[in-house]
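Task 17 of the worksheet. Students: predict the tertiary structure of the chain below and write it out as structure tokens. Keep your answer in the requested format; marks are given for formatting as well as content.
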Amino acid sequence: MVGKGNTAARVPGTLVSRLLVTTGVLLGVACVAVFAAVPPVPRYLVLAVAIAIGFGVLRSGRIAATAGAEVARGVGTSLVLLGAYLLGPVLVSSAKPDQSDTGATPLSPMVVVVLTFLPVLAFLLNFAAQGMRAAVVGVGIVVPTAIVTAMVAAEASRLAVALTMLVLALLAVGVVVRSGPDSPWSTVGITAGALAATAAVGTGLMPLGLITGSGLGRGANRHLPPGVLIVTLVAGLGLAALFGVIAMLRRDAAGGLVVGCAVAVPPLALLIRPPRGGVEVVLALVPAAVVVLAVLGILLRPALAAASWLAGWLRPGGGTTPGALAAVAGTAAVSFTTQALPVLGWSYWVQGSVTLVVCAGATVLAIRLPGVPGAVLAGVVLVGLALTKPVSQLFLLNERSGLSPLSLAAAVGLVVAAGAAWALVRAHRRPGVVAAATYLLVGQVAFVLWWAHMPAGFGPGVPITGATPVLVLLAPVVLAGVVGLVLVQRGALAHGQAVLAVALGVIGFSMLATLGGAFGRVESRDALRGLAPLTPTDTWGASRMIDEESPWALWGAVAALLLVVAAALTTVRRPSAAVTAGVVLAGLFTAEVALVTASRIGGTALADLVMGFAIAGTALGSATVVAIRSPRRQQP
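Model answer:
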């Protein structure tokens, strides 16, 4: 039984933990504000202060003892990585020659890429060596991203990029096989290998490469010859599927999430330019072959024994079951709707009908499958529905579809999405399934809001102004964040934080799309097209229609920042790497949008006011961190 004295001793620690988390968020926002306002040279001092405070929190025994080791680690690493991320652009800016010097040699694209990624990678490797799982995943993401970005910046051929990525994926297979299931190297190999394999075929998620605006989108347009592309598709998607199986066998949630996101994204290069030479047929045959092999494993004992042997080789001591093979078959069938259908050239209503049939069958299968296989398939179905929107495809019978059928499609689609989310979450009450349901619903709600606010006569090329773009982009995810906070308050910590992690991730990437679309250069918008799967609320390019001087953008950013602070406070009760990463991502880009919008609305006066608050917040936050004292030792 816990005595009254012990209970009282816990209260100050909880208050200090919340204060430390709030201080960390405010320090991060202040760092971004000061970074944006000061000249290039003093930025080094700003970033040095942020990194120093981060390491100070990390290595302070008194802070860890008072606020909790997990809370101190989350705040400290977040500040260090934020400073490292901002350090890359500063190094690039400092290395560029003076524009007035016409005879100076321009900076090499390779040097730009190295300077951009080196600080982040160095600190990630440092934290990964200390056993931080989130840093391990970060290393797996940054390595293939940096290689692809460097090759594209150096104008390497599409064949060179594809072969390099396939070789990297094969090396990752070796790393994974030789690593134990609980080894950090296993997660690094799964993450890096999946991104490399899908990058070889022009798909996958390369968020850091897209952030740099290096022209990855333009490089993806350079097609391989049909025969070479077919081999690349089979090898790349086959290796990606292998990493997905390994992640499921080893119960690697972080690696499996990266694999799932990478595989779900349709090949951007094939969507921009229709494939030829039977490439689209091969793209459809890959998931079909996986379905056939999985069904054979379920029906035939020798095939099941072979599958179990392979599973035991990938995870020593493990095996497989008919239920797991059924989940693999369902996942492959859903991936057919996201990967192959968009490039087959079929009419919209056929695509929608096929997708609905496949997802309905996969939903029934996921409900009937118990345990992890059913939960994995449930998450895949929900994400597949979010990416394809089959109900909307059914209403797009031709290109002249008017406003009325699309509005009806949005409403019916929301009903279908809500029904699927309710059924699958009810069958599998796991945080991953809740996160997938959140991803589906925020996108569908944004779609409904978009068509509910469309004026009469709206058509392609007609911009939408006022509060509508901001409302569509942010209202669904802020509402989802509030739901997540309510779940946390009611005791469902893991489920609430799953909702919050998705909401923060969508907010962060949506704000990035806003910076590149509404406030950025035209050439950066092509690179940001690859962010579409990460911005489900960015319906019809709502982020590009936000007015640079709209007060709605500022108020939306403020609401998002309040959600960031509230979400960060939930990590006091239950540490969460996903929520912490979402806080950093959303806080960084939302603060940038707020600062840019404030300067456009109020000019230098408002910018100076924001700058004053940032400096005051930095001073107050630093003083708070220094003032934290170790708790008194209890007498035995």
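Marker's comment: DSSP finds 26 helices and no strands in the chain. The chain has a mean pLDDT of 76.
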